[in-house]
Amino acid sequence: MSRVVTTYHQRVAEEKRALIVTAATALFLELGYDRTSLARIAERSGVSRATLFKQFPSKAALFDAIVTESWSAADEDDPPQAGNVVDGLGIIGRRYAELLGRARMSDLFRIVIAELPRFPELAHAQFSQGKMPYFESVRSYLLAEHEAGTVRIEDVDLAATQFLGMISNYVFWPTLLVPGWEVSAERVAQVVDEAVRTTAARYAADGPGASAND
């Protein structure tokens, strides 16, 4: 019986946490980070102040949760195994495009950009807790392919940046700048496929990325 009760309480706590994060995101967008109080977030989410403070003792902690939720797809699936760079990058590229297509990701970037002059720590949290861990997972995959001999990459950081940039520059950044910008699923698939082909060709083991001594 105690296990059932514990599971129930955990589920309720997770549901309330999701309500709080959703309400906080909406209020940060509507009112700005500075003008949004924890009390207002509690009211919007329909939970008591005690419940909110128990989960999030500060707005900074709550914003960290928004970052974690926004980048959560990075932890949902195992990274592809090295051995076939086209297949591996295809998996990573599709996951990245899906992640960028989430409304919560756009919301996160809008909050950070709007509050950057007054609250640079928000950008730091977004970069160090969200973007960088995800980037490191892609970097680690490319390094594994390099070590497996399927590609030759002298600058893995640059290669990861190039690959992710080819996708985000088309399917994500315009959504923050151009009202009504939409990219069809077919077009997203094409963008990812071209990014994979370009990266695989550039860093092919016997291509221009190979060392002259190889």
Number of strands: 0
- Poorly predicted residue ranges: 209-214
Q: What is the overall shape?
A: elongated
Main sheet attributes: strand count, strand direction, barrel closure:
none
Instruction: Provide mean pLDDT, rounded.
Output: 89
N-to-C CA distance: 65 Å
SSE order in H/E notation? HHHHHHHHHH
Number of helices: 10
DNA-binding region: 37-56
Keywords: DNA-binding
Pfam families: TetR_C_7, TetR_N
Domain HTH tetR-type: 14-74
Descriptive account of the structure:
This protein is mainly alpha-helical and 214 residues long. 72% of the residues lie in helices and 0% in strands. The chain is built from ten helices and no strands. The chain has helices at residues 2-31, 38-45, 49-55, 59-70, 85-100, 103-115, 120-148, 156-171, 173-177, 185-202. The chain is elongated and about 60 Å long. The termini are far apart. The relative contact order is 0.11. The model is unreliable at 209-214 (pLDDT under 50).
Short structural description:
With 214 residues, this protein is mostly helical. Helices cover 72% and strands 0% of the residues.
Descriptive keywords:
mainly alpha; 214 residues; 0% strand; 10 helices
SSE inventory with pairings:
Blueprint: H1 2-31, H2 38-45, H3 49-55, H4 59-70, H5 85-100, H6 103-115, H7 120-148, H8 156-171, H9 173-177, H10 185-202
Helix pairs in contact: 1-2, 1-4, 1-6, 2-3, 4-7, 5-8, 5-10, 6-7, 7-8, 8-10
